[in-house]
Amino acid sequence: MSSASFEVEIRGGEVEGELVRFRPGEALQGSVRITPDEDLKARHIYARLQWHTEGRGDRDESIIEEQDLFQGMLKAGTPVYYRFHFRLPDQPWSYAGHYVNIVWTIEVSIDLALARDPQAIKPLVLTPD
Question: Of 109, 107, 15, which is closest to residue 64 (Cα–Cα)?
Fold first, then answer.
């Protein structure tokens, strides 16, 4: 199983505990540091702005924007850095309810051939308040 360590940093917004809160339309900037545990041939390294629902009922999800950060070889033990940026949409807003939650995340993944894709997920909050 291929693996790598990820450190995802989000800049902008307002820090609230372990989460960063953004308003609709704001710019989100970030970076990721990836250190592969072994040599990896990355078909792609993607950064995705996405949301999904959790709770009762069917799961809904949507990738709002995807950026292709890199294609090529990653050397074992050698950290690499990539930057990403997204403009946040007007909706849906983050929501924590009794039956359903709407969760926003930044996902960074390494697309590998015939292997499970290593990934990191960083949650954020999108709200007009």
Answer: 107
Residue 2: predicted pLDDT: 73
> Given CA atoms 65, 62, 54, 126 in this order, what sign does their dihedral have?
positive
CATH fold label, 4-124 = Immunoglobulin-like (2.60.40)
The predicted model scores a pTM of 0.93
H/E stretch holding 93 reads: none
Q: Which residues are CB-neighbours of 7 under 8 A, at least 6 positions away? A: 32, 33, 120
Q: Calculate mean pLDDT across residues 112-129.
A: 95
Q: Could you tell me if 69 and 82 are in contact, meaning their C-beta atoms sit under 8 angstroms apart? A: yes
Which two three-digit tokens encode residue 91? Answer: 């909706």
Neighbour tally for 73: CB within 10 Å: 10
Residue with tokens 């592969």: 36
Q: CB of 13 within 8 A of CB of 26? A: yes
pLDDT interval class at 111 (50, 70, 90):
very high
